[in-house]
Amino acid sequence: MEINEIKGESNIQLSVSGQVDTVTAPELQSNILTAFQKSKDVVLDLSGVAYMSSAGLRALLIGQKTAQSKGGSMKVTGVQEGVMKVFEMSGFVKVLTIE
């Protein structure tokens, strides 16, 4: 998995590529939490992610809860079909802001 941080005018974008699984999810979670220390608005570009396990879902949930506690937002963009199916089956389409 690879994560690139791009600072915008009013947010931080994290572009994620590779697989988000039990091994890589802690790194994703750490990057999300670090981004929220720099900005209250974070955008996750998942266009390079073809697979996400439940550990990845947990990292996203922690990010969403962090956004809410800071009065900010976390948007998820570029979700591939396979990952979107995981979001739909797990109910995350109701929890996350997906664009």
How would you characterize this protein structure?
The protein is an alpha/beta fold and 99 residues long. The protein has a single domain (2-98), classed as STAS domain (Transcription Regulator spoIIAA), CATH 3.30.750. The chain is 40% helix and 34% strand. It has three helices and five strands. The protein is globular, with a radius of gyration of 12 Å. The mean pLDDT is 97.
Helix content: 40-55%
CATH superfamily: STAS domain
Oligomer: single chain
Mean pLDDT: 97
Q: How many helical elements?
A: 3
Helices and strands: which structural class? alpha/beta
How much strand? 25-35%
User: Which stretches are low in confidence, meaning pLDDT under 50 for 5 or more residues running?
Assistant: none
Query: How would you sum up the major sheet?
Result: 5 strands, mixed
- Strand elements, count: 5
- Separation of the first and last Cα atoms: 22 Å
Tell me the domain tally.
1
Read across the widest sheet, the strand sequence of neighbours is 1-2-3-4-5
CATH architecture: 2-Layer Sandwich
Instruction: Indicate the radius of gyration in whole angstroms.
Output: 12 Å
CATH level 3 topology:
Transcription Regulator spoIIAA
Sum up the overall morphology in one term: globular
Order of helices and strands: EEHEHEHE
CATH class: Alpha Beta
